[in-house]
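Good morning C.,

I know you're traveling, so I'll keep this short. The sequence:
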Amino acid sequence: MTRPRICVYAIAKNEEQFVDRWMDSMSEADHIVVLDTGSTDGTAERLRRRGAEVTVEKIVPWRFDAARNRSLALVPENVDLCVCTDLDEVFRPGWRAALEKVWASDVAQISYRYTWSFTADGREGVVFWPEKIHSRRGWRWVHPVHEVLQWTGPGPAGRRVAASGVQLDHHPDPNKSRAQYLPLLELSVAEDPEDDRNMHYLGREYLYQGRWDDCIRTLRQHLALPTARWADERAASMRYIAGALTAKGQGDAARDWYLRAIAEAPHLREPYTDLAMLLYQQEQWEGVLYFTGCALRLTERPRTYISTAEAWGSLPYDMRAVAFWHTGRVQEALRAAEAALDLEPRNERLRHNAELLRRQAQCEEGP
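The tokens, ready to paste straight into the viewer:
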């Protein structure tokens, strides 16, 4: 089989700080093309010096899908695989060889492992498998924000395959504003009010912005849409409604929504963990133990963005240790505290808690 021609394409604005790291990680591609949408910090010039083909063009009014489509148009026609990344993302070495193992002429999209966030101590946070590697023709990006690829070619799109060994890491600028997200999400929902995905994202964004009533109203709309059938995302909407109700001081109503989320997606740790946290705040320790126990019985982490670092990290064990201590079960508290510390060994609070419990357990055992 012939070797596929691979092109990385991206959009950029004022990301000079990321250029060298990004170009180093993308260097396994045959071509690198970038649409610069109006940088003032030297991004375009630095990219060109590193060998990227750069087109400077402003997108007015700004939409992510319009920018992605313009950048895709810059990809040479003789390319086999298009790889869409952003300048704050980094491939780990060997990604090209991993793509070549699964590529064939009838492959339309390739999914890969993506670490969207990292914790303060460098551990992985949110991990999922996107499909932003695709064939050259027949695709367009849609939606003003949280844009996705849509097949527009004749007939079926072709095969979708997963590329084991391709790892893309996201290391964003923590100071970058997300102020544009809310108006673009509102526009996206106005353009397509039946799109359940963007309705969900809009409700989540209202939660992030502290607009509790808008969050609750929008996510109720999401749950009522006939196309909103994915249990994981439905459960997330229920959890976000519960979070907004908690912020409004309506703990009982929040508890009921968490229970609905559990019933909707009992295979996810997140609803159990969130409800355990609510009960933790209410000092209902037996409830904390029950729901953290339910969460920890789930041992296979899903490959979706719904999966959170907290639910799959030290948090369930941490809450469990405190609940055991409050109910007088020091040995069980110690075991839970040590399990939390094993998952987050550089956390000084967890280390201190485990040491205190160790001493208390030794005192109880006697000389």
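Safe travels,
E.
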